[in-house]
Amino acid sequence: MFEHYLQKADFRNFLTKLDSPCIEMLIKNIEYFTEKEAEKRDEIVKGYFGEVGITTIVNEVTKNLKKMGKWSAVLDVGAGTGFFTVKLAEKLADRDMDFYALDSTPAMLAVLVKKLSKLENASITPLLGIAEQITESLTMPQKVYKPLGITLPASFDAIISILTLHHCMNPLEVFNSMKKAIKCEGKLILVDLCRHDFKEFREKMGDVHLGFELDYIKSELGKIFSVKKVEKMPSGCKCEESGRSADLFIAVAENLG
User: Least C-beta-crowded within 10 Å: which of 16, 42, 91, 99?
Assistant: First the structure.
């Protein structure tokens, strides 16, 4: 049923009902990822980071999620095909965490749906929605989830977001949206690009922002969350076509209400 929903999803109508800002920009991003990346997204990610980089990202996020209690509900914002969601859910399978993978591109989620039948011990629920309006997005398709016996959490114990923020027009709007979706004392974990000057990333990788200064992330997050750390990671992201590389950062924050 969810596959059918994704195939028939009229995302322009979805965004209109949300009264979403920047509809045309969001549609443009969705078209980019549908046409250029959805079916080959996993291989593209492997090319960006290599096995060492992927392992570093997964281990860093896992380390922070392990500080959560068992049976936590974790939302991955901008999950795409679930490349990192699946790895994290499998790595944390012994903690009985429920993962929810939210993305705005139906074609990306369709790839994730195909993976779910092969998962034995991991719980992942795909969700259609946008980072700028998480809670509003999740109230829209209740008629899809209820027949499947899926009850969505009103809020989440943790939100993770890996390489999504630089595709979003307004980071502060995304942070506000995340705060509304995180429980009090819940955790936010972000991994994204440090500031760089490689303008070709906009076309080659569909980027809106050329990464972020760490002080900017710390400042913007600090307006809404209690920031625990914002620091550069030991591995980076490489655009194979240009050969250029950008550093990554990890940010961890807590929602104190």
Answer: 16
pLDDT, tens digit (0-9, with 9 covering 90-100), for 57-81: 999 999 999 988 778 999 999 999 9
Q: What are phi and psi of 168, to 5 degrees?
A: -100, 140
Task: Determine if the pTM surpasses 0.70.
Answer: yes
| Cβ-based neighbour number of residue 200 at 10 Å | 12
Distance, CA of 124 to CA of 137 (rounded, Å): 18
- Please name the residues in contact with 31: beta carbons below 8 A apart, sequence gap of 6 or more: none
Cβ neighbors of 195 (< 8 A, separation 6 or more) are 210, 211, 212, 213
Q: Which two tokens stand for residue 165?
A: 């923020």
The ranges assigned to domains in the chain are 2-254
Strands (E), the chain: 73-77, 98-103, 123-128, 156-162, 182-193, 226-239, 244-254
